[in-house]
Structures are given as structure tokens and as C-alpha cells.
Structure prediction request, 70 residues.
Amino acid sequence: GVEVGFTWHPGADSQHATQVHVRFEPVPVGTLVVVVHDGWEQRADEPDAYRMYQADWVGVLGLYAAEAAT
Prediction:
């Protein structure tokens, strides 16, 4: 598979960045996308931010899946 990684700190200083790793793995019916978003200990709002992004990734990946299916 292929993997891409980047830091994530929208509207915040880079010292508070989290890390996002996205891996694309071929499977018999398409592509499996695995997202790992970690480094939450860098954020003062760690528990709240983690819950918010956990929900947001579901929506973002759903939009990508819908677009890929067209």
C-alpha cells in the first residue's frame, strides 16, 4: 500500500500540531483507507479535540467514499 503523513494544526501554532497518517491498501473490492490521527498530548484541549476529530473523520471519509463511488 501507499502511506502519506502530515502534521495537523489548523488555526494553531505548529508546536500544538497532531500527526495524521493515511494508508491506502488494495482489497478485492476496492481500497481500504486507514487513518491514524495521533499526538493529542500536544493539545491543551486533548479530550475534547480528540472526540471532535474522531467524529469529523467519519464524515470526511464518507464524502471521499461517496465521490469515489461515482
User: Anything to note?
Assistant: Residues 40 and 46 are 5 Å apart (CA to CA). Helices lie at 46-68.
